[in-house]
């Protein structure tokens, strides 16, 4: 039921539009009746458009607030692990000890992929970008489950969700191993989610891989900090794909594809490449000037955000982790010096302050991932691995909602009006 109403005067008409209040954030004006009055709204890039009702994640861009099911990202990064966050995103509440144990056991026992998946990789070039391989292999999972999947059943939706959360680390590690020509490493059920991923990435049959506690903790925290983020581009892609009833594996492949863009999840790879291109602190001013030059397409990767206009709380947590990991691993990475100085200069530059450009989640994650030994071209795969639970939680929530409809935006048409076609002599 609407809380209040807006009256839109347009032409000789007055249209009453219901206004709904959520539990936090901006109220929304329900414009669904506008079509009947002969109008569409127009909001390219959805700068001011709510696409759905959701209870999963709340962001306050001005205050730098990020909540998952009401829990702050700072608390979760400090006191929860990634599987606890996965459980609450999927089920709505933080797990009890017993629920956590059962969930962890279920995920652990779904980490293997069908052995036929190995053959999909054989079709890729060895130097294929890992995100290209991830897009292909995640979508190909549809071929193993499409026939026995009824997405109208909540328990079958959750089973797909568990399979995806469990199998993404295996697929991502396979992309890396295929790139470097090493044999795929099978999952190990005696390891934590993060440790299992690191083992599949870095162990080789010839010797035992020693997992550092600091790296395991950092990896798990990176997963947590990337788990979900409201209706971002890739999550909205998954929702739109899922609204047609498409197979969840195909929907997640669509999310992987959307995340790949450098304006979105591809920014961590682009950010590290940018830091390497800058190379030293004395070259920072040159790049700051380029970022401000309207005629130069260059942007400071890892800065700015559609929603956060003060700071990205994840960047703050990531920054702390960055220092912890580099200190524990005794890594003295000059890129960190460049990153810290770039952050200091940008935060004090009038242009960046006026445009509210602050470091986002991708700014520090690349430095940690590099310190862990993950190659730059794998960064967005790590982001996709972590975000899969967010994507599939939104997919599950959307299909749980009564009256769910296929997404079908309209447009402002500015092309030719109808005109005669002249047949040519062929
Ligand atoms: C993620 O949506 C999410 O939640 C995404 C994400 C998630 O968890 O899912 O948080 C993950 O995608 C983080 C963002 C990673 N992307 C980058 O770091 C790439 C660099 N950043 C930009 O491309 C940009 O800031 C965006 C795309 C992130 C946000 O763009 P907006 O808010 O749509 O702003 P805009 O592109 O309209 O820019 C506004 C102004 C412009 O100047 P004017 O035209 O007004 O003069 O700010 C400028 C831009 O030129 N600007 C930048 C800049 N970002 C914006 N100038 C220099 N460097 C930048 N990084």
UniProtKB/TrEMBL annotation:
Listed GO MF terms: citrate synthase activity
Pfam families registered for this protein in UniProt: Citrate_synt
Catalysed reactions listed for this entry: oxaloacetate + acetyl-CoA + H2O = citrate + CoA + H(+)
UniProt entry keywords in alphabetical sequence: Acyltransferase, Transferase, Tricarboxylic acid cycle
Keyword Transferase attached: yes
Pathway: Carbohydrate metabolism; tricarboxylic acid cycle; isocitrate from oxaloacetate: step 1/2
TM region(s), chain numbering: none
Coiled-coil intervals: none
Keyword Acyltransferase: yes
PANTHER family in the record: CITRATE SYNTHASE
Stated family: Belongs to the citrate synthase family.
Protein name: Citrate synthase
Organism: Pseudobowmanella zhangzhouensis
């Amino acid at each position: 039921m609407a809380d209040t109403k807006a009256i839109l005067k347009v032409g000789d008409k007055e249209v009453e539009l219901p206004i709904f209040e959520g539990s936090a954030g901006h109220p929304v004006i329900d414009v669904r009746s506008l079509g009947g009055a002969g109008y569409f709204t127009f909001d390219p890039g959805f700068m001011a458009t709510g696409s759905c009702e959701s209870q999963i994640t709340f962001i306050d861009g001005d205050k730098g607030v990020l909540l998952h099911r009401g829990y702050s990202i700072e608390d979760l990064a400090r006191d929860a692990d990634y599987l606890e966050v996965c459980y609450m995103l999927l089920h709505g509440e933080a797990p009890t000890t017993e629920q956590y144990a059962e969930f962890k056991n279920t995920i652990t026992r779904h980490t293997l992929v069908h052995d036929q998946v190995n053959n999909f990789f054989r079709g890729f070039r060895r130097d294929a970008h890992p995100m290209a391989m991830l897009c292909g292999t995640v979508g190909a999972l549809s071929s193993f489950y499409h026939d026995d999947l009824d997405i109208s059943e909540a328990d079958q939706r959750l089973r797909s969700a568990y399979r995806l959360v469990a199998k993404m680390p295996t697929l991502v590690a396979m992309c890396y191993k295929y790139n470097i020509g090493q044999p795929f490493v099978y999952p190990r059920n005696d390891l934590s989610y993060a440790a299992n991923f690191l083992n599949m990435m870095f162990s080789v049959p010839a010797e035992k891989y020693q997992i550092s506690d600091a790296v395991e903790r950092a990896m798990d925290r990176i997963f947590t900090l990337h788990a979900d983020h409201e209706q971002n581009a890739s999550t909205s892609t998954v929702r739109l794909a899922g609204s047609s009833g498409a197979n969840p594996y195909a929907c997640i492949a669509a999310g992987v594809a959307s995340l790949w863009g450098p304006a979105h999840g591809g920014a961590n790879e682009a950010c590290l490449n940018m830091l390497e291109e800058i190379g030293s602190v004395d070259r920072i001013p040159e790049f700051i000037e380029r970022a401000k030059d309207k005629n130069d397409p260059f942007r400071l990767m890892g800065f700015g955000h559609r929603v956060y206009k003060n700071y990205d709380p994840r960047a703050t947590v990531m920054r702390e982790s960055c220092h912890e990991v580099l200190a524990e691993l005794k890594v003295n990475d000059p890129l960190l010096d460049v990153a810290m100085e770039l952050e200091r200069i940008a935060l004090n530059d009038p242009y960046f302050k006026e445009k509210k450009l602050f470091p986002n989640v991708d700014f520090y994650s690349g430095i940690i991932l590099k310190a862990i030994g993950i190659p730059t071209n794998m960064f967005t795969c790590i982001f996709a691995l972590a975000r899969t639970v967010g994507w599939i939680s939104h997919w599950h929530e959307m299909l749980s909602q009564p009256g769910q409809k296929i997404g079908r935006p309209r447009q402002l048409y500015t092309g030719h009006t109808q005109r005669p076609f002249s047949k040519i002599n062929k």
